[in-house]
Amino acid sequence: MLFNDGARMREKNIIDRAWDVQKRIEDRVKHLGKGKYGRVLKMARKPTEEEYYRTSKITFLGILIIGLIGFVIYILRTLLAPLILSKLGL
User: Fold this and answer.
1) pTM of the entire structure?
2) Are 19 and 11 in contact (CB under 8 A)?
3) CA distance 35 to 43
4) What angle do CA 8, 13, 19 make, to 5 degrees?
5) Cα dihedral 81→83→85→88 (10° resolution)
6) pLDDT tens digit string along 19-77?
7) Quick one: DSSP state of residue 82?
8) Which CA distances in Å does 69 have to 8, 9, 36, 75?
């Protein structure tokens, strides 16, 4: 099967562009462990089961505390705001 020169040029351009994209990606990944965060990435490890559960508990408690604060603000707004407004005559 014969291709005309235009089709070959387009095919070559697509392949060349694909290789260029691949080279850029490889260059970025190659320098990943050598930048600012290289030492952190090299020292990073998977947490133990105990560390994971401790982190989960602390996170749950933080979410619970923030939720309770929001609920208290909501209750104060719904119960106390009308009372204050009625005392002010508004």
Assistant:
1) 0.49
2) no
3) 14
4) 125
5) -140
6) 888 888 888 777 666 667 777 777 888 999 999 999 999 999 999 999 999 999 999 99
7) H
8) 67, 66, 38, 10
